[in-house]
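ok so for the tutorial part 2 we go from a plain amino acid sequence to predicted structure tokens. step 1 is just haveing the sequence, like this:
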Amino acid sequence: MEKRFDLVEALLQLEEKEKRKYSSKVTLDSMAVTSVTPQSLENTEKVTEVTIVTEDRSIIPIVPFPFEALPQSLKDFVFKVAESHHVDPSLVACLVLAMLSGLIGNAVRIIPKKGWEEPPFLWVVVVAPSGYGKSPVINTLARPIHDIQRKLYKESLNSKEGSDESTETTFKQIIVADTTFEALADVMHRNPKGVVFWKDEIGGLILSLNQYKTRGDDKQRLLELWNANPWIISRKSKSLYIPYTGAAIIGGLPPDELPRIFTSSSLRDGLMPRFLFSHLKAGAVRFNRAGLEDPEKNFWAGLVSFCHFLPLREDERGKITPFGLSLSEEALHEFENTYNYFHHIKEYLSEEMKPFIPKLLSYCLRIAGVLFVINKALKKEMITNEEIDKQTLLDAIEMMKYFAGQVVLTLQLYKDPEKRYTRWHIEVLQTLYKLRGKVNKGLLLLNTISDEFNKDRPVNLKLDSRQIASVLRELGFAIKRTTGGRRALQWDEDRFNKLYKEMVATVTIVTQPDFSTVSAVQKSDHSDSEITLEGEIEVVDEG
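step 2 — the prediction. this is what the tokens look like for a chain of 543 residues:
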């Protein structure tokens, strides 16, 4: 868990160097980003508008869920539930964290510095085919929550005996499954700690925003809910001021439905980046006779109970004062590095991916808060104003990196299947433009191209010679091998001129080459760029 970002230093150094700047506008529905790059090419003609979608996957890797970041007992429980329900354990892990975040609620705030306070609520969308098995897992995990809810309802019934007040509209709810925003306002008015909001198909919630209103503000309320901001509800019958809101939102969506539910407007207004996505694939399953035994059930019920009964501190005036979870000096150092890292790579990300970065960093803090409370529960220690330790923060960073990769998968669902040119295609062609004077006997060594291409680039944005060769082949160039075993581009002046003219026109770029098959290739310890090609050179077609 001591893994550090190796790009931080490189990116900090890059800050001092001249960078290419893009001014862009994005249309998520067509996945086209119009960018003007006035200095991207030397001696270009007047038209320099290029349409480009960067490949976020080459910058933000897609990684499996980091189960090692969970406490061992919770990890064992997650795998036991997954085994029992024949599902991916990452589904169980995401649901567990989200549910507990809603039960912890406004009892705590995560405070990395003065003026920045994060509530712990997580909004999770499970992206999986219909029939995957989400609902049975939810039902199992929600059982102890419903046990508490039944007790609260019974207590409300007993307290209202002999009263004309309607119990159905006044009992304290901690979990809701199907509600309107006006009804949710009443729920939070009675329970300022917050709720767990489960929506089997999250599309129903998103599509219902302002459905029955000509001038509705449901979407604005949902945006405010993410920050646990106050709500003001104005009705003909009565008005409500709800100073303390908050909900953990959990829902599912089939992958083919996601682009229809989260349209381009939900990216522009910030709704889509407020959700954490977890993609699951259906596969062949085999019946498993193992079920959940009483020890596992009791373990989960104990966690649920601990988080639910965290006290909501109120003063005599009714003002809530959450427990403050600050970061230890070491934890703050790790978060600072992570914050700087992601904001530096943000420049290289697609316009669609950029809005997710600030929210992911907020989620890093929220997840750290949830993990901290879980560890306290397992140790049977009560919460006070405390510091989140370094290891807990590092665990949260690993989870944030998982969710960042899941955003990349989410945005890939929006891509136009037509494939023309990629960002790498354009930047490699720019490199060829600079090196065209070094072509010797119709050849240009790949290491020469790679060295020029990688100048002043952060480490994980560099391409080795094999990756460069892959891009060149996609551009239609042939790769040859010299008698000395060196690989070189066979220069094609006509091909280069044709591509170069397209470079200074409008080009649609919708995808990136897949380097997964060569990512493990080690870079050479020496550079061929210093070698001069002299004499007769025998070349063979490398295909």
